[in-house]
Amino acid sequence: MLFASEKGDLCPEQAFDGFIHSVFNKAINILSNDPAVSWVSLLDTSLPNTPCGVKVDIINEPEFRQCKVNDRVYFRGGILRFAEQPLLSIDTRMAVYWKKPPKPKEFQKSRVLKNISYAEIYFLIQANKVLNSKNIKNYIDYLNLQDIYFRFNLLYEPEKIVKNIGKGQGLTPSGDDFICGVLALLTYLHKETECIDESFFTKVNKACQSKWKTTTEVSKNYLQQAVEGYFSQPVIWLIYDIFNSESNDELEKSISNVLEIGSSSGCDIVSGILFGANQLKNNYIY
Length: 286
What we know:
- By secondary structure, the protein is α/β, with parallel strands linked by helices.
- It is built from 8 helices and 10 strands.
- The chain is globular, with a radius of gyration of 19 Å.
- The relative contact order is 0.14.
């Protein structure tokens, strides 16, 4: 039996039956028959934490190589078992919930604006390296390069952001990752300052309903979590540091942690954060 080390807030406690949706070198995604807990991700310890993720040593356990799409799984008493792999089971009972940022003591507008500016400078340096380019001069250049739709007013027409759902390639298209970045920023402001009204998320959620079929199953899952206010650990900490950090080194580390997500997903997420921050900084960031 293997023992999970960490887990996300959306990981199940109740029993469920399910099957393997997808298998990767460092991750296995599971669909359950419980609509309240429809998705569980088994993540290698080298990957970042996610809301529905369970961290376990996948790379060094050969039994995981035998797992196949549509294999049956079942979860009972905190233990995940695999019907086709009787020697493989994962005990989640002692796994700890991954660390969240503390409540902020206060916001200083000058510091927040400085951090937004520095975050963009550092992001551009890294994005040009990733894309082997020297032509990305600002976050708008990056959005244009990724064909992300951004010519709308986030304050008054947030629902237009869903035009980006499914845009791009891969398991999580660039447009979806961009949306996650924007929503992460809005969620933080909503929870910590109450200056973003719940109607923002209601409008986005309603607009998403007709767009789910245009993206991948994996990305749909993460977008649904984002609309509900749940994000991966590196993203949450980056948002926290933008509003609270007094150190450029801290901010660089947080940005780098997000940029390590996927091939271009990290860049797309940060571009969404920067888009939201620049649209809202004169109205809501104070």
